[in-house]
Amino acid sequence: MHNMALFGVKKSVVGGWSHFFAFFCALLLSSAAPVKSTMDATAFLRHELGNHEAQLSAIEERLENYEATGVALHQQLINMEYRVEQLQAYGTGCEKGLIRVEATAKALEVQIQQMYGQYKELMAAVAPIEQQQREQKEATASLRIALETLIEALQRDGEQPEHDKSYRVKAGDTLEKIAKAHQTTARAIKECNNMKSDRIVIGRKLCLP
Questions:
Q1: What is the extent of the structural domain holding 205?
Q2: Rounded to whole angstroms, how far apart are CA atoms 168 and 207?
Q3: How many whole angstroms separate alpha carbon 164 and alpha carbon 126?
Q4: Residues 153 and 168 grouped into a single domain
Q5: Based on the domain organization, do 179 and 109 belong to the same domain?
Q6: Prediction pTM value
Q7: Rama region for 7: left / alpha / beta (φ>0; ψ in -120 to 50; rest)
């Protein structure tokens, strides 16, 4: 049952990410995406980011529930072992009592083994949830970076002055490649466009020095 639940969560997360990735790639591959489409993409990214954060919160809550159940099972295991020890000590003074105690102890040992098996299954179920939690955090971080990059691009496109020479970023472009093709430097392009990093977005219009 735990595995089926985990599969459902993973399928939902992967499906949402695939939808986002397809949409974002379609936008970025467009060589002349209008500002409205870019703003729509920003809204979509914010929405997807909210969904991923909500899913991450739900996964963390499930992980806490699993851990609490594991602690309870471990405590029950300790209590059962203590009862076995008590029964075994009590049965040493009487043979019939010892037989009854041994029978009870065996039954308790069976229960302990079953509970220990459940405990191990629970710990095994927690491991993929932790992995999924890490992946969800990475996906959320990627969404946040993409959103910040897009917002930064929008702000800079609105602020940058008009230049005679410009270039629109295409797939596979880097600042070094663009600078070399136009006999300039990556640093000069960054200064011309008020850029703080070398990260560029497909479809963005860069002024050339």
A1: 164-209
A2: 9
A3: 59
A4: no
A5: no
A6: 0.31
A7: alpha
